[in-house]
Input
Amino acid sequence: MVVLAEEKTARALSAKPIWIRGIGWCSDTPGLETRNWGEAVYAQLAAEMAYEMAGIRYPRKEINFVEVNDEFSYKELQHLEAMRLCQKGEAGPLTEMGGTEINGEIPVNPSGGCLGVGNLFELNGGHKVLEVVRQLRGEAGKNQIKNVNTGLAQSWRGVPTTTGTVVILSN
Output
C-alpha cells in the first residue's frame, strides 16, 4: 500500500516511510508528423526535472534500480537512453550483456515491467511507483534487490501521446 502524506503523518503511519526526492513530467509535441519517433524527448525532459529536484547529477551512479515503461520492448531501451541511464545506442548492448537484469549493473523492471505483469494502461505509472516503494521497503519478495536506497519510476501514457513522468524515491 502507498499513502501520500507529509512527513509527520508518514512517520506515524509507517516504520519504513519512502520519500519523494524528485518528480518531473512533460508533454512533448502532439503532432504525429513533427515528432522524432526515434527518441523519447518527454522522458528526457521529465527526468531532467526530477533529477534537478532530487539533486542527482549522475543518474546511473546515484540510482540503484528503475521501473520504466516497456509496454513495447523498444520503449524500455528508448527510455533508458533518454533518462541518461546509459548513452545513446548503449541500451541494447547493456541489456544483451545482462546489465539490466535483477543482479545487473542497473536493474530494470525487477517487477517484470509492463510486458511481465500486463499493460495496465492508465495505471502503469501507479504500478511503477508501487514497485519502487516495495523494493525500497524490502517487500519485493523473490524479486527483491539487495541494498537499494534510491529508485526511479518512469511512465509514458502510450501511443499516440508524448506525455511522461519520472519520480525519484528514496528510503
